[in-house]
Amino acid sequence: MQTCVFSKNFQDLDAPALARVISGFGVTGVDLTVRGGGHVEPAKVREDLPRFRDALGEKGLKITMFTTEITGVATPHAREVIEAAARAGVKFIKLGYWWLKGWGHLAEQEAEVRKALAGLEPVLLELGVTAGYHTHSGDCVGPNAGHVFRLVEDRNPKAFGVYYDIGHCTLEGGLSAWKLDLERAAERVVMVAVKNMSWVRNEPGKGRAWTWRVVPLPDGLADIPAFVKLLKGMKFAGPLSFHSEYQGEWSFRDLKGEELMDQTRKDIDWFKKLP
User: Fold this and answer.
1) Which positions of the chain have pLDDT values less than 70?
2) What are the residues whose beta carbons fall under 8 Å from the beta carbon of 121, sequence distance 6 or more?
3) CA angle 241, 199, 247 (to 5 degrees)
4) What is the pLDDT of residue 130?
5) CATH of domain 2-272
6) Are strands 189-194 and 92-94 parallel, antiparallel or unpaired?
7) Is the full-model pTM beyond 0.85?
8) Quick check: 9 and 244 in contact, CB under 8 A?
9) I need a labelling partner for 214 at 20 to 30 A (CA). Which of 5, 8, 14, 242 fits?
10) Whole-angstrom Cα distance, residue 185 to residue 197?
11) Dihedral sign, CA of 110, 175, 238, 243?
């Protein structure tokens, strides 16, 4: 597995600082945000990406993957971002999201997604980059691995695969559906995200009684030790991105600076000790 840390929650760090922080986590690379508001703006990817590549390289790290907002060839700067990935030796990118329009639109939106993927496929194959479709819980087209698998199964596996997020898949999959979906999609899983989540009582007057929060890896609903055993059984060798999403209202606590770094380090150390 190619271990990396998602750069989203270290967004205030420039290239040298990001490289310095990530080098202390014991991973081999970075899952770099190349999207609006990210570490690299898509419109400036040609100019700005080399700074991150070089700074990370000085610390013995690589850019393992890009997290993008690409949902088709019409996404602004989509081709430039994929070309930049290819030039930098980055073989994997995460796609953007298709959010549900509401009840009654699912079949229509699935057709839109399939059309968008078909249009993007020649560019990915030409440039030798594989796009992962992220399993994102909630009102998203593709909230679990089984759904995402059905959306990508007819596409070239060199172009598209499933980006399996154990936290989101457990929210949607409860006791065992996360595992059944993983088995169903196993041959097309190209990237993995690691985070954990838990259901918590919502505050009175804020909608339904229960909501979710991101929590430290050992503390949530996801059976991460079982998940790791399954990944090893699958001989998974792609990017594995640690998502330290411990900021804002969706985190168990809003961590900053050293606290965020310390929690990230604890998560990764715990993960590495799993059999």
Assistant:
1) none
2) 155, 156, 159, 160
3) 50
4) 98
5) 3.20.20.150
6) unpaired
7) yes
8) yes
9) 14
10) 22
11) positive
